[in-house]
Amino acid sequence: MTNKIVLKADSIVKYFYEPVKFEVLKKVSFEVKRGEFVALIGKSGSGKSTLLYVLSTMDTDYTGTLELNNEVLTNRKQNELADFRNRNIGFVFQFHYLLPEFSALDNVMLPALKLKKKSKEEIEEAAYKNLGLLGLQEQALKKANRLSGGQQQRVAIARALINEPAIIMGDEPTGNLDSKNTQIVFDIFRELSKERGQTIIAVTHDDDFAANCDRVIEMRDGVII
Amino acid sequence: MASVNNRISRTYLTSSPGQTIVAILGVVFGISMYVFMTGFMTGVNNTQTELAFSALAHVHIYNDRPADRSNIIQAVYPDAVVNISHPKIIKYTDGIKNSAAITALLKSQPEITSYTTQVNFNVFFKNTGNKINGTISGVDVQNEDKVFNISKYMVKGNWIDLEKRSDGIILGSELASNLSVSIGDNLNILTADGVSKNYKVIGLFETGVAGTDKIKGYININAARQVQAANAAFVTDIQININDYNQTEGLVNKLAPMVPYKVESWQMANEQLVAGSELRDIIAIAVSLTILLVAGFGIYNIMNMTINQKIKEIAILKAMGFSGNDVTQIFLTEAVIIGIVGGVLGMGFGLLISWVVNRVPFKIANLETLPMTYDWQDYVLAFIFGLIITVIAGYLPALKASKIDPVDIIRG
Ligand SMILES: Nc1ncnc2c1ncn2[C@@H]1O[C@H](COP(=O)(O)OP(=O)(O)OP(=O)(O)O)[C@@H](O)[C@H]1O
Ligand SMILES: [Mg+2]
């Protein structure tokens, strides 16, 4: 069961056309198993974020095939993909995008309210718990635009976890955090992958962080080396 | 799912109150103007109609000139060459002979609220040197008042006095001043048949319609028959009022085959009145719809602006798994809430404007203040129109928002 493949990328090729035609991802193929904690590293501009957007199903402008949780997601409709993301993927952006007019708590709750698998009370409880894990229980009712950069990033992580997704993807999820909070986030990811079998794929520039993961994938100029 | 979307809409509406209020005010303005304009126009039309009905019944029965039958040969032999010189169409009968049979028929019509019989004829009013051409209405005093509400227009004397005074006459105020007579004075009339008779002025009326006030006098119907040397059943006109003056057609169609005289509705006789009131209605609707449309554009602009500002947040929502439909729903809900709140406030504000305008003094022809109607159907209609326009104005930007590609925005 633990060796089941949860992510399969096959010959992913992606071009950018502006300002000139440019191949960002050059036949990228790899697999990730259930419960694996993977670090994606590489120099700036090597294509890590671009790959992560393809893997997260948000970017559909590529060739090759993408399979997540045994579902082929290439060439699916936008609305189906949105629903799939809601159920199966938690995403932490490189720039912590929260909804500024909502409280930290609301931001965390929204994906779960959308999923509607639990009652509002259960969701609120889980959201408080997640915020607590990340040391944010005090900030729960503050509006997102009143939080510091690092706090916002941690709220974004709490939000990515709320639906207990099979796959959590983070684009430098600890980029804005001090070493203490980076350690907290790392420990949470570690536990989720080990105890709950959730798969983590995190882009990172932090060598210590990468060194402690199950596996490191390194990219250079659009290929995995 | 709906509840999350509603919650997001509500948060957006309350977190930028300035924009929300401007959008709501747009709707309020549109709806209140619509309500006010239609109320005012209907008020004007009703006043116009009411004034017209002081001299006009809803349905009128009279002895018309007979149909032109001078060429009956052609009817029988269509191919014949016919040459008739100087045909004369002669009216053999004057007035309505069998009035009792007709009034009996009228009594059995449920939609008729009142009717009256009249003996009308042209006369010269004479007071020593003054001689004025005019008409006399010999009236059934009580029924005349039921149909035309004439007692309301009396400026001197009592209308009902005419009932007992066979030598009394009630004159239009302007006619009386042109003749230099006042209440209590004597007056001589001369009919087309050369009959001359003296009357005593027992009252003056003023309808505000100059054409009536200048030429008309009322006497008792029996006195009129006497002057015309007619029998006791003779009348020239029967005037009928019904429940709803817009529904004359049914009665006219029903009576026409049973009555051997001309049965005419007020609309047939006064097309200019009908045209005037319809044109005013069209203007009112055009003006108010334009206002609503302009308000709609305002909402469209505000919604567009909001969506451009929130483009990043829409991308995040989509990244988290909200579908295009959810996004449409979020912004459409905003528009509907703006529409409903603006609509309710607009109806209230419109009512207030109407109430104020209704109290502006305007003293012309029987009016004290500017006329106004308060018809709940106009209010409901304005509300529905307003809602439709806000929904359209909100739907177009919402559709645009639903098509946003999240990666493009998030990649920056
Ligand atoms: N929208 C875009 N249009 C054109 N080229 C782009 C676009 N986004 C990124 N690129 C280019 O694609 C390449 C890969 O970019 P990407 O953002 O994936 O790099 P990265 O590995 O995430 O870098 P970093 O570590 O700095 O975040 C870069 O050369 C970048 O200039
Ligand atoms: Mg990047």
UniProtKB/TrEMBL annotation, chain A:
SMART domains: AAA (SM00382). Residues 7-225 form the ABC transporter domain. Keywords: ATP-binding, Nucleotide-binding, Translocase, Transport. One of its GO terms (molecular function) is transmembrane transporter activity. Pfam families: ABC_tran. GO terms for cellular component: membrane protein complex. The keyword Transport applies. CDD domains: ABC_MJ0796_LolCDE_FtsE (cd03255). SUPFAM superfamilies: P-loop containing nucleoside triphosphate hydrolases. Belongs to the ABC transporter superfamily. Macrolide exporter (TC 3.A.1.122) family. This is ABC transporter ATP-binding protein.
TrEMBL record, chain B:
Its main location: membrane. The keyword rRNA-binding does not apply. Keywords: Cell membrane, Membrane, Transmembrane, Transmembrane helix. GO terms for biological process: lipoprotein localization to outer membrane. InterPro entries: ABC3_permease_C, Lipoprotein-release_system, MacB_PCD. It is a multi-pass membrane protein. It is found in: Cell membrane. Residues 20-249 form the MacB-like periplasmic core domain. The chain crosses the membrane at residues 21-41, 282-303, 330-356, 376-396. The keyword Aminoacyl-tRNA synthetase does not apply. GO terms for cellular component: plasma membrane protein complex. Residues 286-406 form the ABC3 transporter permease C-terminal domain. Pfam families: FtsX, MacB_PCD. It comes from the Bacteria. Belongs to the ABC-4 integral membrane protein family. LolC/E subfamily. This is ABC transporter permease. The lineage of its organism: Bacteria, Pseudomonadati, Bacteroidota, Cytophagia, Cytophagales.
